[in-house]
Design brief:
Helices cover 71% and strands 7% of the residues. By secondary structure, the chain is α+β, with helices and mostly antiparallel strands. The protein is globular, with a radius of gyration of 38 Å. Residues 401-417 have a biased composition (Basic and acidic residues).
Length: 417
C-alpha cells in the first residue's frame, strides 16, 4: 500500500509508523513535533511473532516516531477515527493516500506488513510507547529540578533524613541500571536483580515527603495573627519547594523502574507484557492521584491564607502583601510541579491586594456612607430647623400675645385710676 501510515495511540502518546518520507510528511501536515523511536526499538517491535519471517526486513527499514498526546495530537486521533480496543486500551488504524497525499481515510490493515494485525507485535509497540511516555516525563522532571534550583542535588544530599539518604542510594543503583540498558538494549536478570528492591525505598521516601507537605498545611492552619502568618508563609515558601523536589525525584525514579520493569517482562515473559503494562498504568495513575490530593490541599490552604491576609491589608500594609506573595510563590510552584508530572491543576495564584487599592476602596465606601450621612444630617437638620422655626413662631406669637395682654391690662388699670 502506497503512502501508508500506521497509527497507534495508548492515551498518553501517538506512534506514527511508515516510511521516513511519509512519516515526516504526516507529522508536518498535522503540525506535530515528535521523538524518534530509534531503529533498535523498532527492530524490537518487528522481531515479535511470525510476522518477522514475512516482513521483518520491511518493517525494520521503516521509520517510527512517538508524539506526546496533547490537545493537538489528541485531535489527530479523533480526526482519523482510530478504533479503540477494550482489551488493550489501544486505538489503532491506518491512514493512506495516493501520490504522497495523506488523506483522512482509515483502513484497519491485516496485511503482512501491518504491525496492527499481530497481537504480539502490538503488545511490544504498546510497551515501548509506555516507556517513551514515562521517559518524556522523566525529562520534564529533570528540567524542572534544574529550573527550580541549579544545586538541587546538593540540597537533597544535604538532608539528614534517613528516608532521603536511602532514596539517594537507590537513585544511584537505578541510574546505573538505566545506563546499562542503554548500552545493551535490554534488561538482563543480573541488571534487574540490582534494582528490584528499590521500589519500596522510593515509596517510603514519597510518603515521607507527602507527610512533610501535610505538616506545612497544618502549620498554616494554626496561625491566625498576620505576623505569625507572614513568618509561617515565608517558611512554607522555602520548605514546600524542597519537598516538591523530593516528590519529583521520587516520581522520576519510579518511572525509571517501570521502564526497566517493562523491558524485563518483555525479555522474561513477553506473553504478560500487555497486562503488565496496564497494571503499571493503573499504579502510576494512583500515585499521581495521591500526590495531587496532598499538593492541592497545600494550594487551597495558601490561597485561603492569601485571602485572610488581603482582608487585613489596611491594618498591616507591609506584612499582608508579604503573605500573599509567599502564598503565590507556593501556588505557582505547585502548578509548575503538576505540569511536569502531567497533573491537571485548576487553581490560580491569588492577586496581591495592594494597600493603596484597599485604602481607595475604604475611602470610596466612607465617602458613600458619608454622603448618606450628610444627607441624613441635612434631612435631620432641616427637620430641626423646621421644628425650631415652628417653635420660634409659637414663641413669638406667645410673646406678642402676652405683650398685647399686658398692654390691655395696663390700659384698663389706667382707666380705672
Amino acid at each position: 500500500m502506497d503512502n501508508e501510515i500506521q497509527l497507534i495511540s495508548d492515551g498518553d502518546g501517538l506512534t506514527v509508523i511508515g516510511s521516513e518520507t511519509d512519516v515526516d510528511r504526516f507529522l508536518v501536515s498535522e503540525g506535530l513535533s515528535s521523538k524518534d523511536v530509534g531503529s533498535r526499538r523498532l527492530k524490537s517491535v518487528a522481531g515479535a511473532g511470525a510476522v518477522v519471517a514475512q516482513a521483518g526486513s520491511d518493517i525494520a527499514a521503516e521509520s517510527a516516531c512517538w508524539v506526546k498526546l496533547t490537545r493537538e495530537s489528541a485531535q489527530v486521533v479523533k480526526k482519523y477515527g482510530l478504533r479503540e480496543s477494550s482489551k488493550t486500551g489501544l486505538s489503532t488504524g491506518v491512514v493512506k493516500g495516493p501520490k504522497g497525499q495523506i488523506r483522512g481515510f482509515v483502513e484497519f490493515a491485516s496485511g503482512p506488513r501491518s504491525l496492527l494485525g499481530n497481537p504480539a507485535v502490538l503488545a511490544r509497540a504498546a510497551g515501548i510507547m509506555a516507556q517513551l511516555a514515562m521517559q518524556q516525563t522523566m525529562d520534564e522532571i529533570t528540567d524542572y529540578l534544574a529550573a527550580i534550583d541549579e544545586k538541587v542535588d546538593e540540597v537533597l544530599r544535604a538532608q539528614e533524613d534517613a528516608a532521603l539518604s536511602d532514596m539517594i542510594g537507590a537513585e544511584l543503583v537505578i541510574e546505573e541500571a538505566m545506563t546499562i540498558r542503554e548500552q545493551v538494549g535490554r534488561v538482563s536478570e543480573i541488571t534487574w536483580s540490582k534494582v528490584q528492591a528499590t521500589p519500596g525505598t522510593i515509596a517510603t521516601t514519597q510518603v515521607y515527603a507527602l507527610r512533610q507537605l501535610d505538616a506545612l498545611v497544618e502549620k498554616m492552619e494554626r496561625k491566625t495573627k498576620i505576623g505569625d502568618l507572614a513568618e509561617a508563609a515565608k517558611e512554607v515558601e522555602s520548605k514546600a519547594q524542597e519537598w516538591l523536589a523530593v516528590l519529583a525525584r521520587c516520581f522520576h525514579l519510579q518511572d525509571a523502574i517501570a521502564v526497566l520493569e517493562l523491558d524485563r517482562v518483555l525479555d522474561a515473559a513477553p506473553e504478560e507484557l500487555d497486562r503488565h503494562r496496564l497494571g503499571i498504568r493503573i499504579a502510576r495513575r494512583n500515585r499521581l492521584d495521591l500526590i495531587s490530593r496532598s499538593t492541592e490541599r497545600l494550594v487551597a490552604r495558601m490561597n485561603a491564607t492569601a485571602g485572610a491576609a488581603n482582608a487585613k491589608v489596611l491594618l498591616h500594609p507591609t506584612k499582608s502583601p508579604a503573605v500573599v506573595q509567599s502564598s503565590n510563590h507556593v501556588v505557582t510552584g505547585v502548578h509548575d510541579f503538576h505540569g511536569r508530572l502531567g497533573i491537571e491543576s485548576g487553581r490560580r495564584p491569588s492577586e496581591t491586594r495592594r494597600w493603596a487599592v484597599a485604602a481607595a476602596e475604604v475611602r470610596d465606601k466612607a465617602l458613600e456612607t458619608g454622603a448618606k450621612g450628610v444627607g441624613a444630617a441635612r434631612s435631620l437638620g432641616n427637620e430641626t430647623l423646621d421644628r425650631a422655626s415652628s417653635v420660634k413662631g409659637k414663641l413669638s406669637s406667645g410673646v406678642a400675645e402676652r405683650v398685647r395682654r399686658l398692654r390691655e391690662d395696663e390700659g384698663e388699670r389706667a382707666e380705672e385710676g
